[in-house]
Amino acid sequence: MFAARSHSELVPLHRSVSVLLVDDNLFFRRGLQTLLDFYSSTGSLTCRVVGQATSVDQALKLATEQSPNLVLLDLSLSNSQGLRFLQERSQGQERVLVLSDRQDDEQVFRAMQAGAYGYILKENLAERLWPAIKTLMNDQIYLSPELATGFFRLFQFYSGSPFIRAEAAHLTEREQEVLHCLVQGASNSAIAQHLHITVATVKAHLTAIFDKLNVRSRTQAIVKALKLGLVST
To answer: What is the distance of C-alpha 105 from the center of its chain?
Structure first.
């Protein structure tokens, strides 16, 4: 798993999370709804489905109208156009968890690069979905172990290629420390505790890091930092 802390160490969440389901398989969406209802009845996090979409266009419309906290997205939607949702919602506030039946390193890489907060395989849904949701809602990213190795292998490959050649950002020593913690999946409070600084200071450093890397989210910062070789795993 990509997050640094175990599931039991995650910050308790006692709130409702609005969810948008994006999948063109009716029976799969019903299965997701059943799982979310079960999780809501047994945990501290209540998942409330606010919309269901079968196409990218419909998903984009519902995301704008409903402003969900979480989107469960099938990348194979409409001839693999699920990536378009990530690209067009790059400035959205929702966290996107990709659900896929393909264990494809390149697809995982592209999805995370486009702004996904997590990626799990449908065959492991019952085991991975709930930990993934809790991780995302703690503002961390989630990659299951079976996907992480290939994901980082591609980062290592691209780090020396013209595909991502760019000038390294001029980060301060403290910003580099914050960025390293971020790549490990730590939350703001965990970073603050580790570096013995306040959460407000962590947020200030993250703002500076995002500005220097020209990114808008934690996921994009992690992706770019790894691609540029600013941190190691």
So the answer is: 16
Helix (H) or strand (E) run with residue 143 in it: strand 142-143
Report d(CA 111, CA 77) in Å as an integer.
13
Contacts of 34 (CB under 8 A, 6+ apart): none
Report how far residue 153's alpha carbon sits from residue 166's, in angstroms, rounded to the nearest whole number: 20
pLDDT in tens, 15-68: 789 999 999 999 999 999 999 999 888 877 889 999 999 999 999 999 999 999
pTM check: above 0.70: no
List the strands of the sheet with 45-53, edge to edge.
45-53, 15-22, 70-74, 95-100, 118-121, 142-143
Q: Distance (Å, rounded) from C-alpha 45 to C-alpha 35?
A: 13
- The token pair at 62 is 């519902």
What residues of the chain score a pLDDT lower than 50?
A: 1-13, 160-167
- Dist CA 85 CA 72 (whole Å): 11
Residue type for position 188: N
Element (H, E) at 45: strand 45-53
